[in-house]
Design goal:
By secondary structure, this protein is of the alpha+beta class. The chain has helices spanning about 5-25, 30-45, 70-80, 85-95; strands spanning about 45-50, 55, 60-65, 105-110, 120-125, 140-145, 155, 160-165, 170, 175-180, 180-185, 200-205, 210-215, 220-225, 230-235, 240, 250, 255-260. The strands form 5 sheets. A 6-stranded antiparallel β-sheet has the order 7-6-18-17-14-15, with no helix packed on it. The protein has a 5-stranded mixed β-sheet with strand order 11-8-12-13-16, with no helix packed on it. Strands 4-3-5 form a 3-stranded mixed β-sheet, with helices on one face. The protein is globular.
């Protein structure tokens, strides 16, 4: 088995392990085929510039993947959008074939309807469009101090971070409404019972250069403890409240500390 084949198998095995937890082995093959086909098409855009030298000339890929609604959509999010997973897999594939992407390489993935039956479309550009350039967030994290979350701490590494009691929130028709980034699993701690399914979210305010906490109409409310003063977060308020280092954020009785 060649090195490239080994890399492809490694990537496929990693994606398979993730999506089978949601779909099961029998229903995962179609998604894995789409993932593999995307990597092969991207590799097909490598261009020779002189004898024995090839490059991947594009810095920006816009990938649209056909994804169903409901529970299967969650598996597509895991395989393609969560944690910039597809971008990481494309980087690894290009590096192993000797054509690492240029600095600033970016892949944006959108799930939705795709014309035809290929299952995806890819648009390649030599530069990242100005309106698609990623925001550079200041370093910050949440440290769990009360209740029990899936992780002990969470880096605020994207514009919006959703907090709730379930990893996946579904509607009555089993369609995915939201995936929470910070999860306080039901039954893991008495305080977790006061965290709503869609409790709150933290969003980066680019204009202010700061993170803001928003309450998403939770049952037990969201509040800050700042210098021993309790500050309620208004439910559904568009602006939310600007976070300061050291703030303790309470989701009902569960809590995290905001650090930078």
């Amino acid at each position: 088995m060649s090195l490239v084949d080994k890399v492809e198998k490694k990537i496929s095995d990693k994606v398979r392990e993730l999506v089978e937890k949601v779909l099961g082995p029998a229903e995962s093959s179609g998604l894995l085929e789409i993932h593999r086909a995307i990597l092969e098409e991207v590799e097909g855009h490598i261009q020779p510039i002189r004898k024995g030298v090839r490059v991947f000339p594009f810095k920006y890929l816009a990938v649209r993947v056909a994804a169903p609604e409901g529970k299967p959509r969650a598996a597509f999010e895991i395989a393609f959008t969560e944690g910039q997973r597809l971008e990481q897999d494309i980087r690894e594939r290009l590096e192993q074939v000797g054509c690492p992407p240029a600095a600033g390489f970016q892949v944006d993935v959108e799930l939705g309807a795709v014309p035809g039956d290929q299952g995806f479309i890819i648009e390649c550009q030599r530069q990242v469009p100005p309106d698609r350039q990623r925001l550079k967030l200041p370093p910050a994290r949440l440290v769990v101090i009360k209740g029990r979350a899936a992780e002990a701490s969470y880096a605020l590494s994207k514009r919006r971070l959703d907090i709730g009691r379930l990893a996946e929130v579904l509607d009555e028709q089993q369609r995915l409404l939201r995936r929470n980034d910070v999860v306080f699993p039901e039954g893991a701690d008495p305080a977790n019972a006061t965290v709503s399914r869609q409790h709150a979210h933290i969003e980066f305010d680019e204009q202010a250069g700061a993170f803001r906490i928003h309450d998403d109409a939770s049952s037990y409310g969201t509040r800050l403890l700042r210098e021993n003063q309790a500050i309620p977060v208004p439910a559904g308020a568009a602006r939310g409240i600007k976070l300061q280092v050291g703030d303790e954020i309470f989701f009902g009785q569960a809590a995290v500390r905001f650090e930078a």
